[in-house]
Amino acid sequence: MNEQFGIAGKVAVITGAGGVLGGSIAKSFIKSGAKVAALDIRREQLDVRIKELTAEGGEAIGFIGDVLDVESLKKAATRIVEKWEKIDILLNIAGGNMPGATLGPDQHFFDMKIADWEKVTGLNLNGAVYPSMVFGKIMAEQRSGSIVNVSSMAAYSAITRVPGYSVAKTGIGNFTQWLATEMALKYGDGIRVNAIAPGFFIGDQNRAVLINPDGSLTERSQKVLAKTPMKRFGDISELNGAVQFLCSDAASFITGAVLPVDGGFSAFSGV
């Protein structure tokens, strides 16, 4: 492999590592020779993930941590630096939607519960801001590092039924640009901040709205595929290479970018 695209020996902090996306990227990073500090609020999922990562023969440690709890993040950061002396990469993967913040086909915006709105916007926006403050400070001291956030197709144009998620992910795009500018101007060109914007992937959180109980596609799925030139859903592993690229030296002059990984969804007008 071209070393320019490599991440071997780099220390990567991955939030939400117990989840499907975080787990997929963590395993890909381990196979590429990175050292992984996996963070998740769920102990059972985190324990399973660490076993999987170490079984691959790589170095991995796990931390129970809440991305909205700055003190728990600071404790994790201290322990990571004590063990590996640096933090090269931060992947802000923790996030997602929840049923209470998703409007049903017959519901209206006015029916949405404020508490659910606050949970979703807080997790998906502050869940990237707070870790960036804690782990990004170490990068500022090092004058080197790469942060990758997760945006969404919901940030490009309105997607019905997911108002809180859409607003938060739109904020992620702006925050990515803002922090990229802040880091470069104040700490030099060694720190980069970018984001990926995944297209449509079938996972536990959206399966019910995309797949009928009999396995057929829902009306919503059919609309998604009609606007996706590749005419298929993505495989979660197809995000791994994009993230690794953004964290590698091959992307040394890329900062403030939001990279769609969407099968052409964001490019296609539908006509």
Structural account:
It is built from eight helices and seven strands. With 271 residues, it is of the alpha/beta class. The mean pLDDT is 96. The chain has a seven-stranded parallel beta sheet with strand order 3-2-1-4-5-6-7, with helices on both faces. Strand 5, helix 5 and strand 6 form a beta-alpha-beta unit.
What's the average pLDDT? 96
According to DSSP, the number of beta strands is 7
Query: Which strand order does the major sheet show?
Result: 3-2-1-4-5-6-7
Percent of residues in helices comes to 40-55%
Shape: globular
CATH architecture of the largest domain: 3-Layer(aba) Sandwich
CATH C-level of the largest domain: Alpha Beta
From the 3D structure, determine the CATH topology of the largest domain.
Answer: Rossmann fold
Helices, by number, come to 8
> What class, by secondary structure content?
alpha/beta
Measured by DSSP, the beta-strand proportion falls in 5-15%
What is the string of helix and strand elements? EHEHEHEHEHEHHHE
Number of structurally distinct domains:
2
Oligomer: single chain
Cα separation of the termini = 40 Å
Specify the biggest β-sheet. 7 strands, parallel
Give the helices and strands, then pairings:
Layout: E1 11-15, H1 20-31, E2 35-40, H2 43-55, E3 60-64, H3 70-84, E4 89-92, H4 114-142, E5 145-150, H5 163-187, E6 191-198, H6 207-210, H7 219-226, H8 240-247, E7 258-261
Parallel strand pairs: 1-2, 1-4, 2-3, 4-5, 5-6, 6-7
